[in-house]
Amino acid sequence: MFSWTALFAPLALMLPPAGTADDATNPAQLGPKKPIAEASASDQQWTAFEAWRPQGYPMQVRIERRVVIRVSPARPSNAAVLADLPRRFPDRFAERKMGKCFPMRSVAAVQTGGASRLILFLRDRRMISAQLEKACRARDFYSGFYVEPSDDGNLCINRDKLQSRTGAKCELSRIRQMVPVRN
Hints:
By secondary structure, this protein is mostly beta strands. It has a domain at 69-180. Helix content is 9%, strand content 28%. It is built from two helices and ten strands; from the N terminus they run H-E-H-E-E-E-E-E-E-E-E-E. A hairpin with a 4-residue loop joins strand 9 and strand 10 (169-180). The longest helix is centred in the first third of the chain and has 11 residues, at 4-14. The radius of gyration is 33 Å and the shape is elongated.
């Protein structure tokens, strides 16, 4: 059944109310508002709230700079990556102590390497085993991670947090360099 009310209700909402001469509905008086000093006596009761009314737009601009580095997972099927690897890849690796920090810009890729361990591939063909803190799982970092660079540009244990793409944030508890074991 057809309803005339449903047809004319949007039109009625667009029309001004009848019999009012308010500034907001009278098109002849549109323009700048009267200053507070020229306000009528009926408007004087509302001048107490003028102090809380914003006066135009603020003349401040705040610019924040945030840089986040994304490390992608290693893609073993990529032919370009395989061309750079040695022809005979070692079967076993040994972990050697290294410092507490290494340059963040040198990280090229990441791969999970156990329950709470990540293998970081560096641009100079070194490999680093990074142990995550106890509450973190390496499985969360299968698709890479994000890290905010520090002032010195290094990634250090017990200082910098890695954020997985799923939202987990973890610190590194230990880093070791992986060296191939010769038979």
